[in-house]
Specification:
heterodimer; A: 596 residues; Beta-Lactamase; four-stranded mixed sheet; 18 helices; 18% strand; B: Rossmann fold; six-stranded mixed sheet; globular
């Protein structure tokens, strides 16, 4: 039941005389504000009704939360809700973890995958970087630094490749200088931040006092060594100290200020009422972690260079072609060595080409009379400029070379041929007597000459003499049976014989000899031998006489008869007998160039 | 529950403040901070009635004729350790005088009085009567010795007790 609300008097009655007026006023008010009074009563009822109030709040709550969220930066609502939400979640997990697990499942998978991907990406990147650093001059320098300072190589690499990195952030209570909370970047060795906070505050005071600075002034930053910086951001109730390795950009100070402002906004009351219980600031960890920042030096891996690959391929191709070319060349030179080995006067022991050389070295021996190796090279189509002949000299016993050597040493006159057969030097042709003597003395001394055969050698004119002698040997002057008269039809053979005899006489004279020719008379077998002997004698004498008459010297002739004892043909027919009735000639002197 | 408290050690020059705590604290700073910056911050952790108390000990350069106490170092202090030298009566008076000054300022906080150099009892100028006199005025002076370690832990514990559970 709603309480009944008595009509309120604006003022208590002061005088009894006024009571009457008041009664009238109440009546007037009742008349005037009757409707409002009912409304007021209804409102009051509504305010006091818990169920109704809850209903009312539930209607505006979503809208209120939305409005609050839209206002942005203010995180008071989040902070206010956090303990409740956290507790609810905790209790829910404790009661039945499955519910939360199922709710989180769709979100967990992708984020785990992303985390793993990210992890591997970082791993590959740092591996790349480590590789890059390991194999560079800089890498070696860093390695030496690591060795010198006792740090690990990765630590040194990290320090050098960082532009800056916030290593620690301290939240310090301004009033007491006590450390409220501290966050440390991974892999950073934590120092005792409590003591540091104290001294940091003391330093602030010290600096301010020493320099007589304003109370609001502060030591904003200081630098230690080459790379360690401390940035201090002061707020009215707390201060933030960031320990930074390297040089952070000025924008980072804005970031620090923002974080500090939010700390003040959320923890303002706790900072005021701080009694030493630092656990109240544990939730600030996330907020402080936001002030972590770092920037790495961008190491751009050089892009893959196609021209590098191409040049490598070209080099490989050129090398291959070059090796192939050399292979073919080697083969051709080996064939050339085979050719040389078949050549008389060459003994090749080795062929060699250096690994990166174009030149071929041939070792062995060579007869000076053998064919010029450079000429042979050209015949094989090889470049003589690439040849390096290291050939010792020797005398070959090969017949061709023995003959060649003899020809070179003896300088035979034109028409004389020299060949060697099994070491026997055979000399043929027409030569002066002087040269023949020279040949006979020198030839046996030539290397490879075992004997000299001069049988085929003629003095000048001897060959003509031999020819004419041959002609004469075949000539016949024919006779009739029983007659010693030269027949008219034998005039032509007779003249030919006379001419040959004149030549022979002349040549014999030139050879310093005296011509001697037998004139032989022949008969057929008809008649008795004595008669035939006589007839042969007549026939020879008759021809000799005619020849002398033709101008030939009588002293060169030796007539004789063989009768029918040496027939030139059979006696079976008249034709054969006719052949046997004749005169023949035989040169007795000179014997030079005697018939074989 | 873990608490952090700022404790300032006050007293005349060379009464043994620094020596008193040297063996009982964690320290990362060199003593030379005292003469340069005028303060050295050390840390002492003790257990008091189930609570853990991290005491940040501000060892403040002893006041003498040449250098006044840098009051800014006292800002926000949760407790004081007043140190006097038993062999010099003047240091006790100085400690009490400093205390008066501090307690009158914005950083008033519980204080424990320690009379140091108990190992040199024979040379003491501070008499038992004087200490008795102090007790009647509400002090509970503790005798300590940096040399033997006597009374040091007791002093810290007493201070922690006073800070955590102040008697109304």
């Amino acid at each position: 039941m709603p309480e009944s609300i008595p009509p309120r008097d604006p003022k208590p009655p002061r005088k009894a005389a006024a009571a009457e007026d008041d009664g009238g006023l109440a009546e007037l008010r009742e008349i005037l504000f009757h409707a409002e009074r009912d409304e007021l009563l209804a409102l009051r009822e509504r305010v006091h009704d818990f169920g109704q109030r809850a209903h009312d709040v539930s209607e505006v709550l979503p809208e209120a939360v939305r409005l609050r969220a839209e206002e942005g930066a203010d995180e008071q609502l989040t902070e206010a809700l956090r303990p409740t939400v956290e507790r609810t979640l905790k209790e829910s997990v404790e009661r039945d973890p499955q519910v939360v697990a199922e709710a989180l499942f769709p979100a967990m998978g992708p984020s785990i995958r992303r985390a793993i991907t990210e992890y591997f990406r970082t791993l590959v990147q740092s591996f790349d970087q480590a590789m890059q650093h390991s194999f560079s001059i800089q890498g070696i320098r860093w390695r030496m630094e690591a060795f010198r300072t006792g740090k690990s190589f990765s630590e040194v690499t990290l320090l050098h490749s960082l532009v800056y990195r916030v290593e620690q952030v301290l939240l310090i209570h301004r009033q007491t200088s006590l450390l409220l909370h501290r966050v440390v970047a991974p892999e950073i060795a934590a120092m005792d931040a409590d003591m540091m906070s104290g001294l940091m505050s003391a330093l602030q005071d010290y600096a301010r006092d020493s320099l007589h600075a304003e109370k609001s002034d502060a030591l904003e930053s200081f630098r230690v060594g080459e790379s360690l910086n401390c940035w201090v951001e002061q707020g009215p109730k707390a201060m933030l100290v960031a320990v930074i390795r390297g040089d952070a950009p000025q924008a980072y100070r804005v970031k620090l200020r923002e974080v500090l402002e939010r700390v003040h906004a959320i923890y303002g009351r706790r900072l005021d009422q701080f009694n030493g219980d630092v656990s109240a600031f544990d939730p600030a960890a996330d907020l402080l972690a936001e002030s972590f920042a770092s920037q790495r030096r961008q190491y751009t891996m050089p892009p893959p260079r196609p021209y590098f690959t191409w040049s490598l391929a070209t080099v490989a191709a050129v090398f291959l072609v070059w090796r192939l070319f050399l292979g073919v060349q080697d083969w051709r030179w080996e064939r050339f060595v085979d050719v040389l080995r078949e050549q008389p006067g060459y003994t090749i022991t080795s062929l060699h080409r250096g690994w990166f050389s174009r030149y071929y070295e041939l070792r062995g021996m060579r007869d000076p009379q053998s064919e010029d190796p450079f000429v042979l090279l050209e015949k094989q189509g090889l470049n003589p400029a690439l040849a390096d002949f290291q050939l010792g000299r020797y005398y070959s016993l090969d017949d061709a070379l023995v003959a060649k050597r003899a020809r070179a040493l003896l300088a035979p006159p034109p028409g004389v041929t020299i060949v060697a057969e099994g070491g026997v030097l055979r000399v043929r042709g027409e030569a002066q007597a002087d040269w023949i003597r020279l040949l006979e003395t020198r030839a046996p001394m030539i290397a490879g000459v075992r004997a000299v055969d001069t049988g085929g050698l003629l003095l000048p004119g001897q060959s003509e003499f031999v020819r004419a002698r041959g002609q004469l040997a075949g000539a016949r002057i024919l006779f009739n049976e029983g007659s010693a008269e030269i027949r008219p039809d034998q005039r032509e053979p007779f003249d030919a014989v006379a001419a040959e005899l004149r030549t022979l006489d002349q040549l014999a004279h030139e050879m310093g000899d005296e011509l001697s020719v037998e004139v032989v008379g022949h008969t057929d077998s008809t008649g008795p031998d004595s008669a035939n002997q006589r007839l042969g004698q007549y026939r020879a004498a008759r021809v000799m006489q005619s020849l002398v008459r033709a101008g030939l010297r009588v002293s060169i002739f030796q007539p004789r008869s063989v009768g029918s004892s040496q027939p030139l043909a059979g006696e079976d027919s008249e034709a054969e007998r006719q052949i046997n009735r004749c005169v023949t000639f035989r040169v007795v002197r000179p014997a030079a160039g005697a018939q074989p | 529950m873990e608490y952090k408290k700022k404790i300032c050690m006050l007293g005349s020059f060379s009464v043994g403040k620094t020596s008193l705590v040297r063996r009982y604290v964690q320290s990362i700073f060199d003593d030379k901070y005292l003469t340069t910056v005028g303060v050295k911050v050390d840390k002492k952790q003790i257990q008091s009635g189930g609570d853990s108390v991290v005491m940040m000990l501000w060892d403040i350069y002893g006041e003498d004729d040449f250098q006044k106490l840098r009051m800014s170092y006292l800002r926000g202090a949760n407790g004081y350790l007043l140190v006097a030298d038993g062999t010099r009566r003047a240091t006790l008076e100085k400690a009490l005088e400093i205390n008066d000054r501090v307690q009158a300022g914005p950083d008033a906080a519980p204080a424990v009085l320690v009379v140091n150099k108990a190992d040199l009892a024979a040379d003491w100028e501070v008499t038992p009567e004087m200490l008795e006199g102090l007790r009647t005025r509400g002090w509970k002076p503790l005798e300590s010795s940096a040399k033997t370690g006597q009374g040091v832990e007791d002093a810290f514990r007493a201070l922690a007790e006073m800070m955590l559970r102040p008697k109304q």
